[in-house]
Write a structure and sequence with these properties.
CATH architecture: 3-Layer(aba) Sandwich
CATH superfamily: P-loop containing nucleotide triphosphate hydrolases
Number of domains: 1
Structural class: alpha/beta
Number of strands: 9
CATH class: Alpha Beta
Order of helices and strands: EEEHEEHEHHHEHEE
Strand order of the largest sheet: 6-7-8-3-9
Strand content: 15-25%
CATH topology: Rossmann fold
Radius of gyration: 17 Å
Helix content: 25-40%
Length: 214
């Protein structure tokens, strides 16, 4: 997948508003593979909705979203499964971690589907993010910041043309945020991928090509 193209896209819940001031909503916006995008947003402007639209979890929007000139509303379930396995990765704001599984088991659920990372590589990521001692701890007993790092590792355990990170460092200190940035850059350069990051304030430091206001 080379591009994500939003054409006059707007959440249906915003349809009755008289005016929308945004670089994304109700615009012609294209995200290109290999480029870095930061979407800055205030709370309530549809940041997480945008991520869910692109990832195909929600379709309560007006307008069109195309992947390489194909309207995503035309995709079958099987096509979405293939996309999420090979082309599109997501770090959700609410993380979607299974609390009764250990940190490692949460990662293995994804990696067993993709076969993308060797166990040694996964353990190296845990060490780099300072949570190596939490590998066998149930995720529900981890702090939100620790869970955020687990979710980040999971997002790297697949091939992708685009990776979307919804407030990825909201609960991390600057040191761990920088580590995440460095790890992300290594993986993105390896895959030649595009990066879409959302933020309502604090954001992960990356060489952004475009900063958009939602």
């Amino acid at each position: 997948m080379e591009s994500i193209h939003l054409q006059q896209t707007l959440p249906q819940v915003f349809a009755d508003r008289n005016s929308i001031t945004s670089d994304v909503w109700h615009k012609n916006t294209v995200f290109h593979k290999g480029e870095f995008y930061l979407i800055e947003a205030a709370s309530g402007t549809g940041k997480s909705s945008l991520c869910s639209y692109i990832y195909g979890y929600r379709n309560d929007y007006q307008g069109i979203i195309n992947f390489d000139n194909i309207n995503i509303k035309a995709y079958s379930v099987a096509q979405w499964v293939n996309l999420r396995k090979h082309s599109l990765s997501m770090l959700f704001q609410d993380l979607r971690i299974f609390s009764e599984l250990t940190a490692l088991e949460n990662i293995q659920l994804k990696n067993n589907l993709t076969g993308y990372k060797k166990k040694k590589e996964i353990l190296t990521l845990f060490e780099a993010l300072n949570i190596a001692d939490k590998i066998n701890t149930k995720a529900g007993k981890l702090s939100f910041g620790q869970q955020q790092r687990v979710a980040f590792i999971r997002a790297l355990c697949q091939p992708f043309d685009f990776i979307i990170l919804d407030e990825p460092v909201s609960h991390l200190d600057d040191c761990n945020g920088q580590i995440m940035s460095d790890l992300l850059m290594t993986e993105v350069k390896k895959q030649g991928a595009g990066v879409i990051v959302t933020s309502i304030g604090k954001h992960i430091e990356l060489p952004y090509n475009n900063v958009l206001r939602l």
